[in-house]
Amino acid sequence: MILVTGGCGFIGSAFVLQWLAEAGEPVVNLDLLTYAGHPGNLASLADDPRYVFVRGDIGDTALVSDLLRRHRPRAIVHFAAESHVDRSISGPLAFAQTNVVGTLQLLQAALEHWRALPAAEAAAFRFLHVSTDEVFGSLGPGDAAFTEQHRYEPNSPYSASKAASDHFVRAYHHTYGLPTLTTNCSNNYGPRQFPEKLIPLVIRNALRGEPLPVYGDGQQVRDWLHVDDHCSALRAVLARGAPGATYNIGGRSERANLQVVHTICATLDRLRPRADGRAYAELVTHVRDRPGHDRRYAIDDSRIAGELAWKPAVPFEEGIDRTVQWYLDHADWVESVTSGAYRQWIAQQYGAPAEAASAA
Ligand code: NAD
Ligand code: TYD
Question: Does the pTM exceed 0.90?
């Protein structure tokens, strides 16, 4: 079996669903259920004997060590993090705590577990650290895409915290021999993404007839990847990646933000026309730019394509179509994750983290 951290978030939940459907191997999901974690994302697994949910913190060493001892996972796939750049600008300390200190505590628990394993199990064990292309900083319009050798130049508190965690993962491989894998992936989109991020936020605001906030001139470029493609890449890295290696993952879909917003608007015009017949694009509003806003990210995926025979399968426009349709079909999901009542329900249903964890 494998241990997933942060499996109730956007990418973690997609990974757990895909993993159980494709690999069928049992999963223990350790998630603290911060504002970004929603157990409802995995409600379809409620009666699945291959799935165990534990509410808890990656930094709770006693809990993590106990889970490792009891379940003996052959791999840890580490998603848990604070993930939103704008939140990192207004509150950076939480990012240092979870992404840096939490990852370090998880690495230390993994190391102690790994050292006690019999040789064959130790040789097969993997610690897969899910990171971001944002650690490489910002590119100009004509610059070559990020390779794995690109120097680290993080510009936001979020990317600085992820960069620091990447360095600790590297150090645990180099110093102690822990069989680590690190992936640096571009911007994901798809179902169950919390509506603080650009694509779900634009869909939600458009459906409510509210302004669609575009930071600055909207010409910042991101390389968009459907979340299911990210998950299939992670499975390839886990199965065939070389211990100690890092892999860049991208969507081969560079788009300017304004172009992304217009694609969403055009899709909504087709799938859910406004009652007054006006175009959703009329709601686009340019707002103050994000401080330190990175201009462009782009991924050179030669390593993962060449060594692991992986490439993205979902074309951007098709993926956006499916994503918009998902949000149209799941208005209740958006409502529940954004309402204050949802937070109360979590506390009532799961209690304090430690109680729920020991009951799990
Ligand atoms: P998310 O914010 O949707 O989910 C994060 C999850 O981690 C939540 O379920 C949350 O409850 C959990 N969590 C937070 N702190 C925790 C802690 N201390 N202990 C246990 N669980 C905790 O994030 P996401 O978008 O799914 O991203 C997952 C990972 O992928 C992150 O590490 C992120 O840096 C990385 N990543 C994201 C993107 C993207 O576009 N979203 C791209 C590349 C890499
Ligand atoms: P986001 O989804 O927050 O991801 P990241 O900052 O990790 O790339 O933002 C994607 C891009 O969209 C980024 O360039 C910032 C921009 N953006 C807006 O223009 N308006 C918004 O309201 C948000 C949330 C993001």
Answer: yes
